[in-house]
């Protein structure tokens, strides 16, 4: 799966402001983690591993693990039940369980030009990658400022949740180039139709 322009609706996107939210975004507009190749591309594109990290050891259980963490994180991010529901409590327990795994161990090594670059000490196990994502979710959910900055995209039928770090906290769309552009085009068409 190529990582081309952000206008392709099936492309992997990394514009929510958090890796755990980028994982949730892989369900829109269709399942984007439909194969191991897509998952490997997402893992690298998300920055969980340095570029060039071999992920050939990934197997179908990885897809299951990433999809489960995605579903549980989405449940926690999109709902704030008071009092908590059994489904919310179960999701919280699962994310906390995933977070117990230590993230992949990085190390600094000289690159081709002599400058230090980051690489992993060895092929990362699935649990370590899931642990890093779950820890990101825990940090997001327990940080009152970050949690207050969560926004649901205002685009038609767009379920993406993002962290609004814009000046004045007035960002409306997950992506100005995608949902924002669709809204501007729709607005233009409505005005043109009224002018006829």
Tally of DSSP helical segments: 7
Give the low-confidence spans. 1-9
Write down how many β-strands occur, each being a DSSP E stretch of 2 or more residues: 4
Indicate the overall shape. globular
H/E element sequence: HHHHEEHHEEH
Spatial strand sequence of the major β-sheet: 1-2
Percent of residues in beta strands: 5-15%
Mean pLDDT, to the nearest integer, reads 89
Indicate the structural class: mainly alpha
Largest sheet: 2 strands, antiparallel
Radius of gyration: 19 Å
The level of helicity is: 40-55%
Instruction: Report, as a whole number of angstroms, the end-to-end distance.
Output: 43 Å
Explain what you see.
Strand 1 (106-110) and strand 2 (116-120) form a beta hairpin. The chain is globular, with a radius of gyration of 19 Å. Helix 3 (60-78) runs parallel beside helix 5 and helix 4 crosses helix 5 (126-142). It has helices at residues 19-24, 36-45, 60-78, 86-99, 126-142, 144-148, 176-195, and strands at 106-110, 116-120, 150-152, 161-163. By secondary structure, the chain is mostly helical. Helices cover 46% and strands 8% of the residues.
């Amino acid at each position: 799966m190529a990582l081309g322009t952000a206008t392709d609706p099936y492309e992997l996107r990394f514009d929510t402001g958090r890796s755990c939210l980028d994982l949730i975004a892989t369900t829109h507009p269709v399942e984007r983690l439909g194969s191991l190749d897509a998952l490997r591309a997402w893992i690298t594109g998300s920055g969980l591993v340095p570029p060039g990290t071999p992920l050939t050891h990934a197997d179908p259980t990885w897809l299951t693990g990433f999809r489960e963490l995605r579903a549980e994180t989405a449940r926690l991010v999109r709902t704030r039940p008071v009092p908590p529901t059994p489904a919310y409590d179960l999701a919280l327990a699962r994310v906390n369980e995933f977070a117990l795994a230590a993230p992949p161990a990085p190390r600094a090594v000289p690159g081709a030009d002599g400058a230090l670059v980051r690489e992993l000490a060895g092929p990362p196990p699935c649990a370590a990658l899931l642990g890093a994502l779950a820890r990101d979710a825990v940090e997001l959910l327990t940080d009152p400022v970050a949690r207050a900055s969560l926004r649901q995209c205002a685009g038609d039928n767009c379920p993406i949740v993002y962290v609004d770090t814009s000046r004045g906290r007035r960002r409306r769309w997950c992506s100005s180039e995608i949902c924002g552009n669709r809204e501007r085009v729709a607005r233009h068409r409505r005005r043109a139709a009224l002018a006829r």
